[in-house]
Amino acid sequence: MQAVICHGPGDYRLEEYPVPTPGVGEVVIRVQSVGICASDLKCYLGAPVFWGDQHRQGYCQAPIIPGHEFVGEVVGLGEMAGEQYGLQLGDLAVSEQIVPCGKCRYCQRGQYWMCMVHDIYGFRQRTFGAMAEFVKFPAGALNYKVPESIPVWHAAYIEPLACAIHAVQRGEIELDHTVVIAGAGPLGLGMVAAARLKNPRLLIALDMNDDRLAVAGECGADVALNPGAVDVVGEVLKLTDGYGCDVYIEATGHPDAVAQGLQMICKLGTFVEFSVMREPVTVDWTIIGDTKELNIHGAHLSPHTYPIAISMLAKGLLPMERIVTHQLPLAEFQRGIDLVADGTASIKVTLTP
Length: 353
Description:
six-stranded parallel beta sheet, about 350 residues, alpha/beta, Quinone Oxidoreductase, Chain A, domain 1, Rossmann fold, about 30% helix
């Protein structure tokens, strides 16, 4: 089969690779659509979290097939896999991006998304990704059937939407809250849509791209502000009688958005950090403690939210024709990476093997 192989930062090649076969409890799908994530881009660009630095070992185990946002047709079922997952040949299926070990302290506590082994599709040798014609779900994967009513290029958005839902849940949004979502990329737009279901008093989207802000309005944002055009901190303070927002969710991946959030959030507010940063971020931590006594919540992956994401897409709650801007053949993966890196001409870029 044809597959994109990551050999190292900036070294991704289209190559022939053996078609996987399912063992006991395993599933093989023919990939119908796979998204290019911001974390895929940061891996490509050499971010230390993936390739290591003086403080940590790199997470990516190259050579590896990337791709953790995917959907495909079930073409192979190992012994007991159909019964275990409720899948049949021909079904449309997805798999949660993490395949838990089931044995570590976190898995034993039910906190599987923080698994100590942490095998995520597209980065680890146990979990080769879906930028290929076929991909295997290992035994222990968390798999779901996708309704046929959801187009495959919409279904590839299940993973980022599920992550966005979890980030919103971490914000602990109340009805009288003002909520700011910083970043209106694929994940930020999913956060806007999910936060809209919480029905806060005011929902504000921030982005440097006016086209993305327009889509944020279609996803449910009450106000859309461009930091390149207006003083967004000042605007948020004006909209909140000088108090600031109650919840700030950072989904830009840019260090400036962290400092911006600390400036505009109210005392006792909740700051949710979601992004994978390419470089370290330096801020005045006094704001967090002595000045505002903030709640700082991280958000990682998508525990228990895949069914919610599938339901949201099945109900048509997001403007998917506006979110998925590019569907490219697998052979054009480099163009796809370049589009995501540029960020001005695309929102969600997908590949079709």
